[in-house]
Amino acid sequence: MVIYQGKAVFEGVAIGKLSVYKKSEQIVKREKITDVEAEIDRYTKARELSIKQLQDLYEKAVKEVGESGAEIFEAHQMMVDDGDYIDSVENIIRTQEVNAEYAVAETGDNFQKMFLDMEDEYFRGRAADIKDITERIISALSGAGDAGISSDEPVIVVADDLAPSETVQMDKDKILSFVTVHGSANSHTSILAKTMNIPAIIGCEIPLDDEMDGKMAVVDGFEGKVYVEPDEDVLEEKKKLLDKELEKKALLEQLKGKENVTLDGQHINIYANIGNTKDLALVLKNDAGGIGLFRSEFIYLGSDDYPTEEEQFAIYKQVAESMAGKKVIIRTLDIGADKQADYFNLPKEENPAMGMRAIRICLTQPEIFKTQLRAILRASAFGKISIMFPMIISVDEVKKIKTIVNEVKQELDSEGLKYDKDIELGIMIETPAAVMMAEELAEEVDFFSVGTNDLTQYTLAIDRQNQTLDDFYDSHHPGLMKMLKMIVDGAHKGGAWAGICGELGSDLTLTKEFLAMGYDELSVSPGRVLPLRKVVLETNVAEYKASKE
Ligand code: PEP
Ligand code: MG
User: Fold this and answer.
1) What is the pLDDT of residues 178-194, one digit of tens each?
2) Which of 190, 454, 525 has most ligand 1 atoms within 8 Å of CB, for mutation?
3) Is the Cβ–Cβ distance between 157 and 19 less than 8 Å?
4) Fewer beta carbons within 10 Å, N or C terminal of the chain?
5) 2-23+147-233, CATH topology level
6) For atom 4 of ligand 1, which residue has the closest CA?
7) For the structural domain made of 36-142, what CATH number should be given?
8) 180 CA distance to ligand 1 centroid (A)?
9) Ligand 1: does its nearest atom lie under 6 Å from the Cβ of 501?
């Protein structure tokens, strides 16, 4: 047995086999070869394998997301089989007498550049597809197989770190736990683990070699430990712990259907955060009162090109209909910083967290923004949707947003398309500037939702992605607590309601405090809804306030 220590970001126990996550990005070396024909033969076989993988992916996607969502894999098959691409690879192998991996990488680079140089935005977007298929062929050549999880049974995923664009592609039914060497406590991998209600450990120096793959292990998300090939005693002890966890979950089940009301009669809404439609089942299973944050950017991250109005409309409509009249707060795209999609072609920035992200992209590229707004507004005819805008810093921004929303509404009116005319508009409070302007901002909108993940990073000047700063990242910092009080007071004075949708909302040690501050809503990972309800039901707010005086 070998024990690896890391930092637990979500509690729980998982027992299963390890699966080392293979990045699709490969380092390719240029090597001289002697047998040109054999090398071309290797390339042909890798091409055939790639086409087969893409066909499998196509069939899987048709079942999961339908024909239109699966088309991309058909398009990729055509690209792998493209005559010009093949000629270029074979020519490089023949003339330079080099290995196929290098020839493919070189061709991929050249084709990407060619597409990026094109005027037409559609063709520029194709560069990301070239990158994708190039990496796929190189993986096939090096025998790395398809990126991601190769096992058929649920596994413990071990990785160096996981980008949101990688987690979005994973088959969630196959994941028992996440263990990463890097990554911070506030990264999207941790958020995903919380959504899925599975243990996660970061900062764990576990080797990522082939030998690890398939080994039996226990993840203890209370201690932050991974036991690889555990002894009998440890396995027994952890199995008992797992049983206890399941028992606790069963007890929480009994809270389903209960109102979120404190002992002294104060109500609070408990909603859930989601990243895509697959999370809907968890929202309903955990009896959330609504969706307090739909991170719509995951639609963009899971796509190779800008999702169309129709694609988005279908998704938002499905969410609205599934929630059957319960509130669904859709946050407009929050691309940038840690959530990058290649086809946005955003310039490299020194400091992306403080760069061109979220609403700033929407206000500089209103055509992208309007497509999303049209899709959301049209879906609002099918349920109770609210729209929320991220990363706001000023009243002026909100006014500009409202002008654009009104323009889109007028367009829909003139086309005779239906939408909810009284749709609620809200903003995220994620910057100190927005905190200071809370009252004025509240006069402009219907609601606030505090993004404590970003508000903490911008207030404490601590990059939420930087693992080495986790010890400084004090999520209970008194300065932040003062801000949270200012926000809710400002909201109420300005006539808006206020909630919290950042990770702090599910910190059960602060629930009493949030109730005492007067928050109207907390939106948390689906798995946290019932534990949070339990604390609300056990709280007496008046007593808590008196105990603080
Ligand atoms: C936040 O910043 O707290 C938030 C909810 O948004 P995200 O984590 O997606 O940046
Ligand atoms: Mg945020």
Assistant:
1) 999 987 776 767 777 88
2) 454
3) yes
4) C
5) Glucose Oxidase; domain 1 (3.50.30)
6) 451
7) 1.10.274.10
8) 21
9) yes
CATH number listed for the domain at residues 257-548: 3.20.20.60
Contact 453 CB / ligand 1 (< 6 Å): yes
pLDDT exceeds cutoff 60 at 359: yes
Ligand 1 site-directed mutation target among 334, 463, 506, most atoms within 8 Å of CB: 334
Res 432 pLDDT > 60:
yes
**Where do the domains of the chain lie?**
2-23+147-233, 36-142, 257-548
Establish whether residue 362 lines the binding site of ligand 1, counting it when its CB lies within 6 angstroms of any ligand atom.
no
pTM of the model: 0.72
What Å distances lie between residue 490 and 123, 271, 330, 478, CA to CA? 47, 22, 23, 18
Supply the pLDDT for residue 144: 59
Active site residues: 188, 501
Q: Encode pLDDT of 5-17 as tens digits.
A: 999 988 899 999 9
Of 340, 400, 390, 329, the C-alpha closest to 364 is 400
Most confident of 46-50, 71-75, 145-149, 276-280: 46-50
pLDDT band at 357 (very low <50, low <70, confident <90, very high): very high
Dist. CA 449 → ligand 1 center (Å): 10
Does the C-beta of 451 come closer than 6 Å to ligand 1? yes
Residues present in the chain in total:
549
Closest by CA position to 262, among listed 524, 510, 534:
534
